[in-house]
Amino acid sequence: MPQMNRRIVLASRPQGQVSLDNFRLEEAPLAELRDGRFLVRNIYLSVDPYMRGRMNDAKSYATPVALGDVMGGGTVGEVVESKHDGFAVGDKVTGMFGWQDYAVSDGAGVRKIDDTRVPLTAYLGVAGMPGVTAWYGLNKIIAPRAGQTIVVSAASGAVGSVVGQLAKLAGCRAVGVAGGAEKCRYVVEELGFDACVDYKAGKLYEDLKAATPDGVDGYFENVGGEVFDATLSRMNPFGRIAVCGMIAGYDGQPVPLKQPSIILTMRLLVQGFIITEHLDVWPEALRTLASLVAQQKLRYRESIVEGLDHAPDALIGLLRGKNFGKQFVKIA
Amino acid sequence: MPQMNRRIVLASRPQGQVSLDNFRLEEAPLAELRDGRFLVRNIYLSVDPYMRGRMNDAKSYATPVALGDVMGGGTVGEVVESKHDGFAVGDKVTGMFGWQDYAVSDGAGVRKIDDTRVPLTAYLGVAGMPGVTAWYGLNKIIAPRAGQTIVVSAASGAVGSVVGQLAKLAGCRAVGVAGGAEKCRYVVEELGFDACVDYKAGKLYEDLKAATPDGVDGYFENVGGEVFDATLSRMNPFGRIAVCGMIAGYDGQPVPLKQPSIILTMRLLVQGFIITEHLDVWPEALRTLASLVAQQKLRYRESIVEGLDHAPDALIGLLRGKNFGKQFVKIA
């Protein structure tokens, strides 16, 4: 059994943009394993936009990470020692063990996973929380009918890529918004969206209008800011907007919505949601998503950084739109 | 039978604020009554905020009034001549006959009303479209539970006053927002709200915070602008916002929403609606509202201007918040 655990803790709260000195790598001894517990060696850490919110000490949906605490987050790993009847050495598991090499668990919130048909990392992505997030927002809030037009921002990302592919499987027109020609090409050519608008090309509204000739019936909001404004202007009457992320505002400055009156004039439904509050849908969603992955009907791309000490870089890059696909840190 | 009809038509579309020269009073001959028709003498015209939207030639929920057409709007009146089996001379009716002395109808969209227990004007207010609007937004979107806090803007107005009183009848804490000490006193002392915040007093957020110590569970949005911003900051998780009006933006300039990310962080539902698209609820709502009026459980105030030629003034005053209670023009 290992004696020491390396972990990354929150050293200070960001003032505006996150920087490396908000984090600290430290080592701490591992206590002896008690009965009813098991020890997990984390293999992959998930890096997600919501982590920015938890670094603030503000009224929010996410409990803030306390100063000096391990940065939280989803992980997949392997049981390396066990005094728990339900978990054996060698079991692959996914949980919320955060940015550290090892974690001790009593099994609460931990799920055993099968990596024979679905790769380990998929359980943190398309067949994990991001996938369930996409599934919920699309099916439970947007509830599209075949033939409708669905727009999703951050379309090449972990959530957005699943939203568009599920929309296509439901017979919809799927239009992505992403940053840069390369991401847009990927969204259309590899993920099979009908169109993708490059918000960095300087004519967001015009390009979005051209890509949505029949208007927009459903919008899956991952970004906020100007993409939200542009899409709002394209909404059809009775459109639905699932609000899942507002990266544009995560760095502290609120980003206004320019024309909220469209909510009234187009009689829109706008619904914010946090997927961890809808645990009742997870079994159905996870079953569906894992099955689609195994049948190769859901494609995805991953962005993997190696080494625990690079987790802060990975988060900073993600918040600046530098990743391409679901971001992980491989630590074993 | 009268020979001539006076009417107010849209002479030009407003650039920004509405002015008197956007309207023209004209006279036109009345055609002879055909079989299956009846002639109504309008007694009261309703003046409502939505009329501003119809003066624009813009993509909106409301079909624009064409230049030269009679300004539309709800009316109550009396049948003065009839060649229709369902309507007799002397019948009191409510319909959408607009800003004119007389109108000919085949009965479509016209409802006979009984003014023995409920006054005529109430059918254009608390027991008419504004009342149904309040009933729908509160019961079908906000869906409050006893003990929750409900905020309504334009609280002394035709819709807002009903929202708060229905919220009180449902066991909620009702908090109004209105402009000026006199309106606020009316909202608390006469309508029975628990509190009312004067948005003109210069410390909207602080006053709203003091009036909503347990946060806000439901918000009925009649105004937009800074009141929307302030209330959004007080929303509790899973709060519901019924978006019914955005007067603040009716004059053409879009008014931004400063912190839309609260929709996500508080997992809010924000729903725009137009009451004429929910005709299925009208019979139930009208029955409930008329019964509450007859039992004197719903109080209301009216602002009545005399003379057809003063209808434009009345609308301009309404849009500037000068009316107190439901605005009418008495023309007979």
Describe the structure.
The structure is a homodimer of 332-residue chains. Chain A is an alpha/beta fold. In chain A, 25% of the residues lie in helices and 26% in strands. In chain A, strands 3, 4, 5, 6, 7, 14 and 15 form a seven-stranded mixed β-sheet that branches. Chain A binds chain B through residues 53, 59-61, 224, 228, 237, 243-246, 249, 254-261, 263-274, 277, and chain B through 53, 59-61, 224, 228, 237, 243-246, 249, 254-261, 263-274, 277. Chains A, B: It holds the Pfam family ADH_N_2. Chains A, B: Keywords: Oxidoreductase. Chains A, B: This is NADP-dependent oxidoreductase.
- Mean pLDDT of chain A, to the nearest integer, reads 93
Q: How many E strands of chain A?
A: 15
Termini Cα gap of chain A: 15 Å
Helix % of chain A is 25-40%
Shape of chain A: globular
Q: How is the biggest beta sheet of chain A arranged?
A: 7 strands, mixed
| CATH level-4 homologous superfamily of the largest domain in chain A | Medium-chain alcohol dehydrogenases, catalytic domain
CATH topology of the largest domain in chain A: Quinone Oxidoreductase, Chain A, domain 1
Number of helices of chain A: 9
